[in-house]
């Protein structure tokens, strides 16, 4: 067994084009570190609807140049079989973007070389830029596909590979299965032509076009007075967001200096995700230090590839206390703002997001659609005008970017804050109005990060074999095993519980080693004076549901 493992590793070593991972792997072989070698050669990173994502390092179970070259070769083979929409003899264009993580630039260049060697045209964005710019460029340039090298908000040791097809939205089945089959069919790296030139490096014209498109997000003549504190979370969002805000005429955001510039080590945060505990602490400190006319109205945060947008608001008049809004709250605020502006079209959300969006759309007479989790599904809603998911993802301009976009979402929420400011009101006031109008929709999440993925499978199995009959004293009136699919949804690994006045969905994360449980309770509210009692009741119910669900799942 050990001899076979060493032989596997040595065969990989002979093909590895990267001196760093070659050195790393040679050291493991020389040390006879069979446990570590087994972890790296126990299979291959699986290409799915999230593309690839994993820890950097040598071997087929890690993200490295060998894995990326194989993935690019499989994607190229798939694209060639699809044919070029431009017609016979016209090679399709693949646009490639990348963030500022370790190895991102190398992976982008390798992808461009493979596409060029396969007879396709390749164009690489000029520098590390937000993922939404790549999603925009794919549509704007009429490409057959786009590739973004990013691990979004994962830990520093990770990287990833996200694929968009020609409509500018992420791949969905069966494209992922077909691409994975082409990747598996690559016999060795020696069979993959990789010229050293022949692809284009784009200039700033595509970024300029993206920024010009952001004009469509805002209403002509709308107030532009709200002041913001902004953090890029050590990612690539700063320059593009500042340019977009300047173009729109908003006051220049005050930067969280410690997190403003790209840094692949993400030194000030445990996880570079605004949702993680502590990630927003420096933003809050920056906001508290400002006073008087410079005092901010809201805090905006992007994740490292700037496709997500977090919003925080003051909860005390003296600016000493701030809180993050939940993704569901921001989704409802943006929806209400678009309705007031007279937006038409479909409002879409993932099944794990708040049912409040459906209430808002229904009252406005607009179509409403629920999809599986992820923007690869939300972006495909027919007639999409606005889409969101609770994990801080918002699509506010689907004709420009058919994916979540943290830059344009930041523009739209700042426009809303400006309008409310002119009325002497805040985002929290509008949330209160929505609760009185539609009922208090309170959401929470029970999220468990694991080292051993088998624990997630065990929890899902336990819930299926020993299903709970009630949570927090509320009887479960319906249980949907989503692996069977529904009339509206294709199959996915998840469980949905409907309770009297509550809803729970349990699913493994598609991008991180987490089991995620999404909770919502709906409390009727008679008037604004009833809100404190309704919120207290909702908080107690959510905590009780979390406790009971944790026990039922054994987590």
Short description:
By secondary structure, the protein is of the alpha/beta class.
What would you note in describing this structure?
The model has no long low-confidence stretch (mean pLDDT 94). The strands form four sheets. Strands 1-5-4-2-3-6 form a six-stranded mixed sheet, with helices on both faces. Strands 16-21-20-19-18-17 form a six-stranded antiparallel sheet. The radius of gyration is 24 Å and the shape is globular. Helix 11 runs parallel beside helix 12 and helix 11 packs across helix 15. It has 555 residues and is an alpha/beta fold.
Features:
single chain, 555 residues, alpha/beta, six-stranded mixed sheet, six-stranded antiparallel sheet, 21 strands, globular
